[in-house]
Amino acid sequence: MWKKVRNSIKLISINKGEILMKKYLIMLMVLAVTATMLLAGVSCKTEEAVGEEAVGEEAVEEEAVEEEAVGEEAVEEEASWKPDITSEDIVLVLTAGIAGTYMEEPIDYAVELFEERYPNIKIEVRYIDNQTYSTGFIFTMFEDASSAPDIFFAQFGLAMERPLYEAGKMLDLTPYMQEPNWEGDEKWIDTMTDTINIVISDDGEIYGVPLYTQACTVMWYNKEIFDELNLELPNTWDELLGISQVLKDNNITPLLVGNKGSWPFANFMQVVLQRLVGVEKHDALLSGDEGASWKEEEVVRAFDILRELVTKGFINDDSQAIDYAETIPYFLSGEYAMSPMGAWLGPVTLEAGVPFEVRLFDIPVVKGGKGENENAGVFLPTGYLGYSGTNYPNEVAEFLKVLSSEKVGMRIIEKGDVPTNLDALGRIDEVEVTESFKEIIDFTRNIGISFEAPDTGFPLEIVFLFFDAGQKILENVETVDEILTELQEKTEAIRKSQ
After folding, report:
1. What is the CATH number of domain 90-214+380-448?
2. How many separate helices (H) and strands (E) can be counted in the chain?
3. Other CB atoms closer than 10 Å to residue 242's CB: what's the count?
């Protein structure tokens, strides 16, 4: 069974140079204190003590020489290590659901680096649009083993990977993780952030390589509009309602939502739900666990305050008619004040050259909610896996190494995204980035608990019911009680059928 891990994504201590410097400073302080103590006590030493010290020093020197020799041998052994890669002319196929996005460039760069080192191996990249890929293609591309890709893209989470894992389609990367990384200077597994935990099975096997991490739901805002109206960023839900009213009074639509595909508003809903019920109950509800009820008081309150955004006219009227892709240009037109969306909007604004500042803040807490002090956020680690049926597992693992390397990580940063390579993250200050990207980094660093998006982290039969409930909130036809009663009854029916 797939392991559901809940970790903070630890980026605070990512600067290895800073860590080493601190270690050296501590060592110098210890040496200085030791030297002072020795000088203070030197007059008290007897000849015997001096003799013993001399013998001790010789022993220490001998030990140090031996350790240095062993260390040099280990370095030489690691430097001389070579992966078992074929000398035949072969082609590896990579399929990725990122067609037309800014993430094509880092992949193309990884291919370039790989083929430069292994000119006998060609990487054939097949880009597919994300909607087509994630809603079905990823599950059908292995039906014919002869045309299946050797390497494939995934948005890591229970819903997307569990069927492939249970069908035995994933290449076990565990032994490769103990090998040197692409640069050959440390173990491969030691080069990654804690997001590697997302792709570890209950048996401790590693099946995927996270490439970058995205916050699924933050609140983007037009800083120009906020500055003109002297609006302060909201920390609580009531404050969000307050500034939304000011915006509406000034003939500006406060919130832009494009929910034609059902999932965008659901991502926003789940954060509001967590703010009221807490992460544990949130997970239980979306998992369809027995004892978790959609009719509980705090759940009702979450749906009530979401419905209030609709009844007060704070959300665009055509939210059900426009999809996620259309939402981006609409928001970047400058006519809307805020939009709940993933961190991926940042790189898009970077490429689009938007004439106004686009910034972000976390979804405000709800005072008195059980999730008020959890400091939780939704993250989507995205990366690549190998196909278990490949004829070239060593070569696949080697390509995944370059894909998760420092060089490719730096390209990801340049594109405005957060890589999972620690060495690249340690050099983030070397890259000129936008203020919104700095906010994404700070947001990621400061989150205490990360939880998964509905359609990647939970059973899809329950998730689709949640999507449907979100659409009904926006349609504003059925009451909240009617929506939640139907949601509870259908959840119970699914539970009984399992």
Report:
1. 3.40.190.10
2. 21, 11
3. 14
> Does residue 25 carry a pLDDT above 80?
no
**CA 171 to chain CA centroid, nearest Å:** 21
pLDDT (tens digit, 9 = 90+) per residue, 276-311?
999 999 999 999 999 999 999 999 999 999 999 999
Domain ranges of the chain: 90-214+380-448, 218-378+450-497
pLDDT by residue (tens digit) across 190-245? Answer: 998 877 766 766 678 888 898 888 888 999 999 999 999 999 999 999 999 999 99
Q: Which two tokens stand for residue 388?
A: 């278990």
The per-residue DSSP string of 317-341 comes to TTTTTS-HHHHHHHHHTT-EEEEEE
Tokens linked to 308:
């209030």
Return the closest-CA partner of residue 125 out of 94, 85, 162: 94
CA distance 81 to 292: 53
Q: Read off φ and ψ for residue 446, nearest 5 degrees.
A: -90, -10
Instruction: Phi first, then psi: give them for residue 208, nearest 5 degrees.
Output: -140, 165
Over the range 408-428, which residues count as b (16 or more CB within 10 Å of their CB) and which as e? bbbbbbbbbbbbbbbbbbbbb
User: What secondary structure does DSSP assign to 406-417, as a single string?
Assistant: HHHHHHHHHTT-
Taking the domain 218-378+450-497, which CATH number applies?
A: 3.40.190.10
